[in-house]
C-alpha cells in the first residue's frame, strides 16, 4: 500500500523546523511499522485555517488520482483547523483513503462530534446530487414536451463509443437553451450522449453563437 506523509507547522519561525523534522521522522517510522511504501513526503508551513495550501492540494490531487491509499499525519489538527479540517477529512475519506496518525499509533479514530458532522455533510452532498439529477430530468422532460427529440437531433450516437467526441453540437445547445434549459442541464444531457463537455464550455459556445448572429 502506498502512502503520503504530510507534515505541517503553522508559522515560518526557525523554531518550527525541529517540529517538522520530528513529524517526518515519526511518520516514516509509522509507515515502516504499517509496511507502507512511502510515495511522497510533504512538509509545509501554513495556517491550519488556510485551505489554499500547495502541500495539501498536492495531497488531495494524488488521492483523487488513486496514486496512494493512505495518508499519514501527526494528528488531525495537522490537516487543518475548524471547518477546513472537516472539509479536508470529508474529501479524503470520500475517496476511501485510510488515515493514520502518530497520536493513535495507527489508523485515525475520529471524535464523536467530528464523525457526526461528517455524516451530516455526506447526507447533504447525497441529497444535493439527487436534487441535481431531478432538475436535469425535469429539464429534459420539459424540452421533450416542447418538441425536442434527442434521438433525432443528436447524430452519429454511439460511433465514438469508448472515446470522447471532439465536435460540440452547437445547434442542439441553442435549441435546448431556447427550450428553457440551464447551461448545467444542457451539459449534463450532452454528456449522457458521450459529449465530453462542461457547463462553462456550453455557455461559451452559446455566447459565441449568439455573437456570430449579431454580426
Features of the shown structure:
9 helices; about 220 residues; 5 strands; about 55% helix
The main sheet orders its strands as 2-1-3-4-5
Helix and strand succession?
EHEHEHHEEHHHHH
Helix content: 40-55%
Helix count?
Answer: 9
Secondary-structure-based class equals alpha/beta
- Give the biggest beta sheet: 5 strands, mixed
Radius of gyration: 24 Å
How many β-strand stretches?
Answer: 5
Global outline: elongated
Mean pLDDT: 84
Distance between the termini: 59 Å
Which segments are poorly predicted (pLDDT under 50) over 5 or more consecutive residues?
Answer: 157-166
- Percent of sequence in beta strands: 5-15%
What order do the helices and strands come in, and which of them pair?
Elements: E1 2-9, H1 17-33, E2 37-45, H2 54-64, E3 70-73, H3 76-79, H4 82-94, E4 98-101, E5 106-107, H5 112-145, H6 150-153, H7 170-178, H8 183-192, H9 199-214
Parallel strand pairs: 1-2, 1-3, 3-4
Antiparallel strand pairs: 4-5
In short:
The protein is an alpha/beta fold and 215 residues long. The chain contains nine helices and five strands. A five-stranded mixed sheet has the order 2-1-3-4-5, sandwiched between helices.
Describe it.
- The chain is an alpha/beta fold and 215 residues long.
- It has helices at residues 17-33, 54-64, 76-79, 82-94, 112-145, 150-153, 170-178, 183-192, 199-214; strands at residues 2-9, 37-45, 70-73, 98-101, 106-107.
- It has a five-stranded mixed beta sheet, with helices on both faces.
- Strand 4 and strand 5 form a beta hairpin.
